[in-house]
UniProtKB/TrEMBL annotation, chains A, B, C, D:
<dbReference type="InterPro" id="IPR052899">
    <property type="entry name" value="Class-I_DAHP_synthase"/>
</dbReference>
<dbReference type="InterPro" id="IPR013785">
    <property type="entry name" value="Aldolase_TIM"/>
</dbReference>
<protein>
    <submittedName>
        <fullName>3-deoxy-7-phosphoheptulonate synthase</fullName>
        <ecNumber>2.5.1.54</ecNumber>
    </submittedName>
</protein>
<dbReference type="GO" id="GO:0009073">
    <property type="term" value="P:aromatic amino acid family biosynthetic process"/>
</dbReference>
<dbReference type="Pfam" id="PF18152">
    <property type="entry name" value="DAHP_snth_FXD"/>
</dbReference>
<dbReference type="GO" id="GO:0003849">
    <property type="term" value="F:3-deoxy-7-phosphoheptulonate synthase activity"/>
</dbReference>
<feature type="domain" description="DAHP synthetase I/KDSA">
    <location>
        <begin position="88"/>
        <end position="324"/>
    </location>
</feature>
<dbReference type="GO" id="GO:0016832">
    <property type="term" value="F:aldehyde-lyase activity"/>
</dbReference>
<dbReference type="InterPro" id="IPR006268">
    <property type="entry name" value="DAHP_syn_2"/>
</dbReference>
<dbReference type="InterPro" id="IPR006218">
    <property type="entry name" value="DAHP1/KDSA"/>
</dbReference>
<dbReference type="InterPro" id="IPR041071">
    <property type="entry name" value="DAHP_snth_FXD"/>
</dbReference>
<dbReference type="Pfam" id="PF00793">
    <property type="entry name" value="DAHP_synth_1"/>
</dbReference>
<keyword id="KW-0808">Transferase</keyword>
<feature type="domain" description="DAHP synthase ferredoxin-like">
    <location>
        <begin position="1"/>
        <end position="67"/>
    </location>
</feature>
Amino acid sequence: MVVILKQKAKKEEVVNLIDWIKKQGLDVHVVEGASKTILGLIGDTSKVDEDAVRANDIVENVRRISEPFKAANRKFHPDDTVVEVCGRKIGGGNFQVIAGPCSVESKEQIKEVARDVQASGAGLLRGGAYKPRTSPYAFQGLRAEGIEFLLDAKKETGMPIVTEIMSAAHIELFRDVDIIQVGARNMQNFELLKALGTLNKPILLKRGLANTIEEFLMSAEYIMAGGNENIILCERGIRTFETATRNTLDISAIPLLKQLSHLPVVVDPSHAAGLTSLVEPLSKAAIAAGADGLIIEVHNDPKHALSDGAQSLTPQQFGEVMDSVKRMVEFEGKHF
Amino acid sequence: MVVILKQKAKKEEVVNLIDWIKKQGLDVHVVEGASKTILGLIGDTSKVDEDAVRANDIVENVRRISEPFKAANRKFHPDDTVVEVCGRKIGGGNFQVIAGPCSVESKEQIKEVARDVQASGAGLLRGGAYKPRTSPYAFQGLRAEGIEFLLDAKKETGMPIVTEIMSAAHIELFRDVDIIQVGARNMQNFELLKALGTLNKPILLKRGLANTIEEFLMSAEYIMAGGNENIILCERGIRTFETATRNTLDISAIPLLKQLSHLPVVVDPSHAAGLTSLVEPLSKAAIAAGADGLIIEVHNDPKHALSDGAQSLTPQQFGEVMDSVKRMVEFEGKHF
Amino acid sequence: MVVILKQKAKKEEVVNLIDWIKKQGLDVHVVEGASKTILGLIGDTSKVDEDAVRANDIVENVRRISEPFKAANRKFHPDDTVVEVCGRKIGGGNFQVIAGPCSVESKEQIKEVARDVQASGAGLLRGGAYKPRTSPYAFQGLRAEGIEFLLDAKKETGMPIVTEIMSAAHIELFRDVDIIQVGARNMQNFELLKALGTLNKPILLKRGLANTIEEFLMSAEYIMAGGNENIILCERGIRTFETATRNTLDISAIPLLKQLSHLPVVVDPSHAAGLTSLVEPLSKAAIAAGADGLIIEVHNDPKHALSDGAQSLTPQQFGEVMDSVKRMVEFEGKHF
Amino acid sequence: MVVILKQKAKKEEVVNLIDWIKKQGLDVHVVEGASKTILGLIGDTSKVDEDAVRANDIVENVRRISEPFKAANRKFHPDDTVVEVCGRKIGGGNFQVIAGPCSVESKEQIKEVARDVQASGAGLLRGGAYKPRTSPYAFQGLRAEGIEFLLDAKKETGMPIVTEIMSAAHIELFRDVDIIQVGARNMQNFELLKALGTLNKPILLKRGLANTIEEFLMSAEYIMAGGNENIILCERGIRTFETATRNTLDISAIPLLKQLSHLPVVVDPSHAAGLTSLVEPLSKAAIAAGADGLIIEVHNDPKHALSDGAQSLTPQQFGEVMDSVKRMVEFEGKHF
């Protein structure tokens, strides 16, 4: 950590600041420049509160040099983490496609979609039971009943299920869910993250709409700090000025996350673009950039979908996308 | 609502779509253009699911013409809402300053700050008991004990208190809190919003980092749909490419929110800029743009603050800012 | 084009507006809704000035339904445009890699890089003679002499050259340049675009830092409206809140541009990320998403580069990237 | 400047780097941390090329500590610059309103608007002769004839004129223009900036759509480096994800620019919001935040304006805004 002092800093104030830093177990090197003085902090700075340092009257700025995350950091865990659920592996060369409708609408619907996507090669079934909707007047999901329907579909097909949690109060209802998804809007719902950290169950953590890669990894760190290290990171597009697509898929996030962290990375091309015609090219691009999996929306009757129909594929379209996906996964030397 | 059809739409498909829309209780006018056909939907479209319409194969795009919020909409409630708490009014010409530290750190600290900010003219006391922090290793707040300390400070000074909630599970602990704050990261924590909708207590709702004005009002609508209409909207800066300030204060949001909604609007200049030197000019600008109040961070010892010290004012600096604020409020014809 | 009227619009005013629109050669259909009236404009609306319509007192909003670009529009030119220069083709299944240093620094340097990148499979040579630099104190390029050195390198290797123009006043100096590049900062330098429209020479048009896909295509339209239809579009990253990469590569822009337009699309992974370690994964992703070419920075001595060294590959690194690129191009069924 | 080295850096490489830096006339202090080594560069680093340093294999990152601008920097010129033209002063407590139509459309139009805005208190007349339009099919301005009409209006009213230049090739036509405006899209048209640096005439420099405050000041530095120090900075809104307003007025830029630089700052509330109803509140907010002037669009017949009618005020609306503006300017202790 580098602390840049203001030009007007008095000698006595600088000495006081250095003492205060040293009391936190760090060593300090002073560099006096032509116009400014900087302090180099030496030691484990991951627990130093940048803001507390910055609050000092004589401090102009603080620059962190090491990453503030530890458990999620590849430097300390060079090998890829492989998340395994019901025999399906994600990460370390293992690739999975998670598919299903935005919302679970009925027992028949979810079973039918499950059979369809399984036939095309999807390894896990997704479906929303609790739905985060911008409008209080929009369909909010079947909630507990939706999870029951997902479990029915699992019983029939054997596919492990992935579904989104919106509150720590619902954790008990998710005890049979295979992978719990944290949506983009809850990426910094820290109370929820802490609660999930106490579970022994994989978490699919989606990147927030306007969160940096560092914040994303810090949210994974929240869960891992609680003891749950089974995290799958999910890039799903960020919010920018561009309106031609619903969000802007940050394709660079994939190789960057893989460099910075050992956790597997999956991509959601459906929400990233909000356009069915982009699901195939974005899926291929994600695999080429190093993704460990995809999560794709499929609906057996998109035109009557109760949410997000615009970006859902029909089972037939999904089959065509999967043909491409399989070829690209093989080309990249990964395996299902 | 206007539905734009694809060029390739077949007559039969168009007829089916029109039938389906009519079944939802709406009337449809067809406009056949040179290259495209558009449908004009007539009736109460606030509950029509845009995505369900867009999911139809022959639909190219859907444009909403009326705002999707009702309870928060000034069109249906032309008069300003005035939120009142312990005799302090916000809105409708009434102005309030809410001040206090980012985090409650001790009983003495919060009492001292309370006395200081009250002496300078603040009407309400703020202080974080539950703290949303990016890092799991940063100070997380005194939590329940922090609320106790705030209540002690209230007992001594008579100032109503404002503090942030991070989970619906904590609501019981907030029963004596005067105004419950929802932070930017929880603006779309819909389960929390629903729970707050059942209370009979004012809610200070902060705009999310990357949320549009419409989404902001839809989150207010979530709370109001549950029956709680005591909402104070808070603009606190949005995330943009500019890094010279922590966030970009969206000053235009103030007059726009006042035009679109009857709810009072307060501004947080401390978080918006993240720089103490900008608190005064941004406070003045906010009042000039029509704000009904301010929420300002004040710490009695910013250099040892446990969070967000960089943007906190000392009590003396706050006193100077308040001199400016009072003159500007008076100039604008509002009253404390 | 759909015109949404304000609720308070008087009948007489509406009639006047309709008359004014009809005078511009369009037909108007009126849809009277529950709370609002909308007008559907029928005919060739590409030349109607949205702002002029919006300026009318009774108009609340205007929505364009058809794209405002014609010459660049795939609807009117379904076949891919293939740009050809010195026997190298770009577009329509033909793929090219353009490589070279950010800045031309000396005759020897550019010749050496040219030989190196040609040996690895690059088809065209790039190099900056005129350099847009944020600081007036930074190296501004060798200018006219830089073009001479590029032409020397072309003479020796036979590689066509691509270099950036910064002012219409320099056009005469670019008469022997094979492809003229317009940089991101000049994407809306309309006087320059108009001047380039009168040439009979391919233009590589880079997307601006904060320009939408529609604005990008409108800038291509500027050049095409002047008669020069040899345009290559270049996605090079947009500016967002994320700071881990220099820019955010908008990977979705590739398939979208290919859908909307018949022009070839190349990608600049070097500027998009600003990190050498991302050049390979982003190059592969771009090809997988449908790109027709790449433009990559290569420097024979990056640590002494006079500009943008951080993102330049060494010739050896470039060779390794090219191995990946060639395999991916072949996998996608395209050819050099 | 602080240079952070990679963990793997070898001693010999570090010595070589230090030698190379010292050859550029700087001194280097080495700080060896627990996991990383940093170098503190001492001396005048404003001309050190960050990218050249970053290009070194062993460099992980470079952080600049001093601002890279000199001529525009308040540290070296503590007193406010006052730009004066035909007796009108801007800056240092002097406030001016520049008003007029987006486009000059006819001699009568511009004269009429000039008389109207002068009667309401505007000190300078603006009007676009050369118009940067997104579409090549939109009205491009009257060009040279437009400047003639502006000069006619000046002759009649005595108001100095402000108009936008789009190419250095047109400079001769601007010889009688009082203040030359550089539009947002040309803020980094460096060839144009250099050409304007050789003139002895005030330049109104608008901030680019997606340019940081530092880049904005570096563009001012370009003009100043050429010898022309008469620069007026203009904040006109930046591009963000919010679509309710055309751009997002960055109100914090006003006090920040005033802190960092001695140059006067004016605000364009018309383009910032794109909505006439926001011109008054944003004008007041800008003055409260410390602006030295405003530039406002006024049209005598907005509904038939040839460009940007949606945001133009009628002369009567402008008169009402000016009443507010005058009171606020007086309240702030500034004078016309």
